[in-house]
Amino acid sequence: MLLPFVMTAAFILLSLPVTTVHSATVSSTPAQTFLGIGGSGAWWPHDLFNFPASVRQNLSSLLFSDSGLGISSYRYNLGGGGVGVSNPVRAPQTPYVSPGVYNFSADPQGTFFLQQASDFGVPGITMFLNTAPAPLTSNGDSCGGQFVSGSGTAYATYIVDVAEHWRDAGINISYISAMNEPDSTFGPVPCGQEGMLVEPSQRSEVVSSLWNELNSRGLSSAIGILADETSSTAVAPTEYSAWLPEVVDMVAHLVHHAYDFPSDANYLAYVNAAHAASNGKTTWMSEICCSLGTPAGTGRGYSQGFDPTINNALMFAGLVFQSFVVGGEAHYDFWTLVSNEIGCEPLTSSTCVTTANSNGWTDGMIYYDPDYTTNGNFELYLVKHFWTYKHFGNFVKPGTQRLPLTGSDANTHTLVVSNSTTFSVIAMNPNTTTSTLSLTFPQTVCGTTGFRTSASEDFATISPATGSGETWELPLSATSLSTYIFARKAC
Ligand SMILES: *[C@@H]1O[C@H](CO)[C@@H](O)[C@H](O)[C@H]1NC(C)=O
Ligand SMILES: *[C@@H]1O[C@H](CO)[C@@H](O)[C@H](O)[C@H]1NC(C)=O
Ligand SMILES: *[C@@H]1O[C@H](CO)[C@@H](O)[C@H](O)[C@H]1NC(C)=O
Ligand SMILES: *[C@@H]1O[C@H](CO)[C@@H](O)[C@H](O)[C@H]1NC(C)=O
Ligand SMILES: *[C@@H]1O[C@H](CO)[C@@H](O)[C@H](O)[C@H]1NC(C)=O
């Protein structure tokens, strides 16, 4: 009996594909405490407000509930009136009429989804502005001009009046960002979107005026100021010395975009520079979109091109890992969440929404037909990015903590999230071969379930990890993102 058994075993071993095993140890000492996962309500509310009520409701639950993304951060775009902006979708109305006079019925589209985020209990609501209302800017437009030095008090009064209005209506706006991408005018007029240049030397006026206004109304601890949302991690630290020292104590978190798609080393250099310039303020990544590239992260860079496939979705997941694991950051926001930049016609091609094309943009998790007004197509199309971002939205909740991995096989594509009852391990395999992650936990745990997104699966429920006590094996299938859940107790 022995010989045939050995031969069978040898045959099985030889015929199985080789699975690489990576081993690492989970630290018991938390790194950062997470603050949020989210994205922005620009500029899709303009269109989605016109969709049937049932589709709007579905969209809200796809974004704001755990049956969907379960985001914990929503960025409401307070419009500047869209004066000088040629694309009506990107020209949100403003409630500003004249100093102290408001029309809070303006921008029913943006305020509808702001209310939805609040109704669904999204805990972190930010109000962000691309520009001051047109009458307050240097050129009287909502783009192409610049912040007028000395107008800080008028600008801040407007912003805080609007924030107070919505808070009085029960919407807990807890952060304000008064200059989104202050490094560009987005001109010349006619522009493709709103924008207002705020020179580095002008930024302290914007922050201090806002803080003084919040403080005078007893709101400076209820509403945190986010600044300065510069578009590139390479540029932001070179400008901090021009504005940050004067107002560092008034800023809640230093927020930045990452449109330069930094390498891991450069990302870490940015975070270190931001900490050094601010006495260790938390940094946030608050806007990103629009890159092609591979799951492992090569070929990243701002560019046109719609790629709804798992390859690009993992490339974006890699950016989230970079912020959380390499940068040690506490919060991550994608850009528009919902987009019509699909680059093809879903009603005439059945493969349009699942196939890459060079006409569209990869700037959404959910897409809709740009021709909905003429063809009546109100379908919502979920791309792989929706399913990969759901892993983060569902498990990286505010108050959870990251437990670092140690060991020579620890890699930047694994994130261990802990709360008082559970460890959630979000792990990416960017390679086209399967592998196994072998983890040693700091305590006895019990693998309870798992979820996986791959070319063929959308957050599919999978078998729990196998093991016992402190040591567990987590299979990672090719080109996938998995989350394995562990109860912090014996099985
Ligand atoms: C307020 O804005 C709404 C929406 O644009 C508009 O219909 C209404 O006429 C405005 N009201 C005033 C008094 O301007
Ligand atoms: C509003 O948000 C702040 C900051 O996130 C939080 O401390 C506060 O508890 C929230 N209030 C309500 C009523 O949700
Ligand atoms: C919501 O939209 C998704 C994506 O289009 C679809 O699969 C789902 O059936 C919709 N749900 C409802 C209740 O309409
Ligand atoms: C801990 O995280 C798990 C997984 O996300 C969740 O189901 C559970 O409700 C969380 N527990 C607490 C106390 O927050
Ligand atoms: C993917 O391949 C790279 C390069 O060979 C390797 O360093 C990495 O550990 C692999 N990742 C996984 C999850 O197998």
Care to describe what's here?
- The chain is α/β, with parallel strands linked by helices and 491 residues long.
- It folds into two domains: 14-29 and 403-487, Golgi alpha-mannosidase II (Immunoglobulin-like, Sandwich); 34-395, Alpha-Beta Barrel (TIM Barrel), CATH 3.20.20.
- It has eleven helices and 26 strands.
- The protein has helices at 2-15, 45-48, 53-64, 108-119, 152-168, 203-216, 236-247, 264-278, 310-326, 372-375, 384-395; strands at residues 20-26, 36-41, 73-77, 96-98, 101-102, 124-128, 145-146, 173-177, 196-197, 224-230, 253-257, 283-287, 331-333, 338-339, 366-367, 381-382, 401-403, 405-406, 414-418, 422-429, 435-440, 446-453, 460-462, 466-468, 471-476, 480-487.
- The strands form six sheets. It has an eight-stranded parallel sheet with strand order 12-11-10-8-6-3-2-13. The chain has a six-stranded antiparallel sheet with strand order 17-19-20-26-22-23, covered by helices on one side. It has a five-stranded mixed sheet with strand order 18-1-21-25-24, with no helix packed on it.
- Strand 4 and strand 5 form a beta hairpin.
- Helix 5 (152-168) packs across helix 6 and helix 6 (203-216) runs parallel beside helix 7.
- It binds 2-acetamido-2-deoxy-beta-D-glucopyranose (5 copies).
Descriptive terms for the model:
Immunoglobulin-like, TIM Barrel, 491 residues, disordered N terminus, 11 helices, eight-stranded parallel β-sheet, Glycoside hydrolase family 5 protein, alpha/beta, 27% helix, binds 2-acetamido-2-deoxy-beta-D-glucopyranose, 2 domains, six-stranded antiparallel β-sheet, signal
